[in-house]
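Q: How do we represent a protein-ligand complex in a form that can be generated token by token?
A: Start from the inputs.
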Amino acid sequence: KQLRQFSYNPKLSSSNLAFMFDIDGVLLRGEQAIANAKPALELLNHHKIPFILLTNGGGVREADRVEFISSVLDLQISPLQIVQSHTPMKALAHKHAYDRVLVVGGPGDSARTCALEYGFHDVVMPIDLVRANPSISPHHRYTEEDFQKFALEPVESHLDKPIEAILVFNDPRDMTTDIQVVSDLLNSNHGIVGTKRKIENLKHREEPSIPIIFSNNDYLWANDYNLPRFGQGAFRIIVEALYKHTNQLKASEHLHSIVMGKPFKIQYDYAHHVLIDWRTKLVADDTANTEQILPNLGETPTNSPFEKIYMIGDNPESDIKGGNDNGLETALVRTGVFRDEDFNSIVAKPTVGVFDDVYESVTAILEKHK
Ligand code: G3P
Ligand code: MG
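Then emit the structure tokens for the protein with magnesium ion bound:
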């Protein structure tokens, strides 16, 4: 499809515009670049308009994710230009909220590497518990090679030590095991593996034995299959249903958990801080600098330099609702989850409009500010 030509406009580069891009269904489908994604980002770079990627994806280090995206899009993106679903959890490590955590999801043990880099000192993953005692998950899918490559030695897992919190970094790979291990801990005695609390004398059965933090609530997402796929939100529904049954909760009761990620304010506030930090580096031609001011969780940016921030997404529930609820302008693209026939029933309507792809949305927005 012929790209609409957009000539450089010096007025734009002095603008207080900024963009946040969703990844899956906007820039990438699975591991493939979406057509016209590169020229859309190049247009912003050409005008020195700051942008970041705001994704409910994750499970790997930010540096590794942007390295992959930069190679697929053939366009350099800094590790400071991405907020993944779990990126705000850095603040939990730095606030020493938790030290010994169970981290769930993502490929191999990449999420462990990421959590350790965030500053958590004692990171256990479900595969560690299976290696130490395979009967914990009767139908687990791990091979001896997986244990060698990704799991701690049983003695290193310190299974007698209580686990303080469960952090779900990304979609489970061996969901059977993750459901079992997470459910065990939610119903354990104070986070000790292999124990089970008595529910008879429990006052608040909705409170799990240890807290669980999900990093996004995506029931569906768009990869390169022709239909949307279950995301971490589907995993949460299963965990909640089993918790409800195990604890004999009433119909009106449910597992109390924390959910980060789009569309929630905590995520958009965090991303807004990251965007301000990135703009400062862009204006100072200091984009090779990878030192970032770590935002505090739950802190809304004050005196933002931006007149308008545009959120471009494919999922009305996470991208459009989240953008609209948090003061951003929003554009919805047809290259991911959203289908035109659903327009009248989507949970939130884009303030700018619906576009065939990300390039169409960016040029239409820049036209408005010429
Ligand atoms: O796990 C990825 C999925 O939840 C959605 O990612 O980039 O569309 O927010 P994204
Ligand atoms: Mg998406």
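DSSP finds twelve helices and 15 strands in the chain. Residues 265-283 form the longest helix (19 residues).
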